[in-house]
Amino acid sequence: MDDASTDPHSRDVVVIGAGPAGLSAALVLGRARRSVTVVDAGSPRNACSAALHGFLTRDGAAPADFLAVARREVSGYGVEIVADEASAVVVEDAAGPRLRVKLAGGRRLRARRVVVASGIADELPDVAGLAERWGSDVLHCPYCHGYEVRDRPLVVLAESTEGAVHQALLLRQWSQDVTVVTHDAGPMDDDAATLLAARDVRVVPSRARELDDGQDGTLAVVLDDGTRVACGAVFIAPRFRLNSAALTGLGARTVTSDMGTALETDGEGRTSVPGVWAAGNVVDLSCQVLGAAELGSRAGIGINGELALADAHAARESAQRRQ
């Protein structure tokens, strides 16, 4: 019998992160009758949003309500959910593999496999008044929020030309009044300028100084020269940072793009570290709630298959020793 079923500190799987990816992995594994602990740091990335969108049967649900239902479902299969933060993952035996997960609260867990699903953090432009409006009037995903701000004047605060052009052209599906403030992107080249002009997107070559509601309560981007560009919402393209101290020193391979750095995995979710899997935004920086849940489910299925094969090998070796 594997020690995960006899040692109170051992689990088949420890999942780091209790968002849609981590809880989906835990749901699959719990239903497969694996011993699972989910470590929940309690800081979901979309907590600042009023609702999640694009998830069939859950479109418009409040993020907190969505997670509460998910936790109840997962707990119903015997999955343990611990309110704590994973501070380190250590490979004790690469051949096994066997891992140890250290929690900030002092608890230590041993695991046959670990799923990193701790998400990412958004690094926002340094513009006064922007962070306070993040998730309400300041947004980043047209597919998540475009419908809710439809037909309003929208401003794209550019961090790069390519990203701003892409975002502005998408937003034209929801509004006929879209303005790009070049900010950190600098001057637009002819190709970008003509594309935007063809879709009646205005380009303002200036940096943004602040976001302000003004005396009339109308949101505006205030430029360096004091000019106010009134709008109903501001879209940005933040850079993303992996949100897990547990990864420090682990040596997992990463992939870097203009958006930030993600963990490198194979098609099922295995990282380069034996026994460590990953799912959700730590793997795909742009995936939404539905996509994160799918990656978590895929990782759970892959892990259970891998453990089933390992259990069969162990059982055969045990039988051979008894002969």
Descriptive labels:
single chain, elongated, 6 helices, 19 strands, 323 residues, alpha/beta, 27% strand, seven-stranded mixed β-sheet
Main sheet makeup: 7 strands, mixed
Q: What is the strand content?
A: 25-35%
Q: With helices defined by DSSP (H or I, 4 residues minimum), what is the helix count?
A: 6
Helix content, binned percent:
25-40%
- Mean pLDDT rating: 94
| C-alpha Rg (nearest Å) | 23 Å
Topology, element by element:
Blueprint: E1 10-16, H1 20-31, E2 36-40, H2 63-75, E3 80-83, E4 86-93, E5 98-103, E6 108-116, E7 120-123, E8 138-139, H3 142-145, E9 154-157, H4 161-171, E10 178-181, H5 190-198, E11 202-204, E12 208-212, E13 220-223, E14 228-230, E15 233-235, E16 239-242, E17 254-257, E18 260-263, E19 276-278, H6 289-322
Parallel strand pairs: 1-2, 1-6, 2-3, 6-19, 8-15, 9-10, 9-15, 10-11
Antiparallel strand pairs: 4-5, 5-6, 7-16, 12-13, 13-14, 17-18
Helix pairs in contact: 1-2, 1-6
Description:
This protein is of the alpha/beta class and 323 residues long. Helices cover 26% and strands 27% of the residues. It has helices spanning 20-31, 63-75, 142-145, 161-171, 190-198, 289-322, and strands at 10-16, 36-40, 80-83, 86-93, 98-103, 108-116, 120-123, 138-139, 154-157, 178-181, 202-204, 208-212, 220-223, 228-230, 233-235, 239-242, 254-257, 260-263, 276-278. The strands form 5 sheets. Strands 1, 2, 3, 4, 5, 6 and 19 form a 7-stranded mixed sheet that branches. The protein has a 5-stranded parallel sheet with strand order 8-15-9-10-11, with helices on one face. Strands 12-13-14 form a 3-stranded antiparallel sheet, with no helix packed on it. Strand 4 and strand 5 (98-103) form a beta hairpin. The radius of gyration is 23 Å and the shape is elongated. The model has no long low-confidence stretch (mean pLDDT 94).
